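dumping this here before i forget
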Amino acid sequence: MTIYPDDGHDLKQHDKIVSRVRNGDVEAFEQIFRAYYDLLLRYAYGIVKSGDVARDLVADVFAAVWHNRSTWAPQSSVRAYFLTAVRNRAFDSIRSLSRKTVFQEQITTEDIAQFTGSAPHDPLTQLVMEDRLEQVFTAIDSMKGIRREVMLLRWREQLSISEISSSLQISEGSVSAHLSQALRILRDIIGK
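structure:
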């Protein structure tokens, strides 16, 4: 059973799986868990920069949904609901921790490959790319609120403008404007 109605198709199927979860159907809940866990983990990690914290946040969100399943009623889509819930938990977590410890993590070759489209082939190139990527991360981390979220969703999670709009509950025009402003800031900071 497909449970990705986020593109506007198959809303009947969406309502059906939500209803099943509300009625205590463990199998339906497990389907949702399997379908969204990896996406939510990457999204949380993009915000909190800690694998352990990200796993805890995502687990907490799923536990809260299961605990309150009888009244669970996502307004738009299951995916948007979970992205919003994880985002809110992640920012709550950040507020309770020192910002410095949350965002200081070493850049990996995988991060470089994701950012540039290919892994560096020699140590010097890797050092230069790590430095550049560190500048990008620092710039994104210094951005405020919604602009930072938009950048993380677009760059880290590779969500479409429409998906970001749904997740953050803002217009697609606002998403585009935030992306444009954020890219301008990045260009100014890293000199490109």
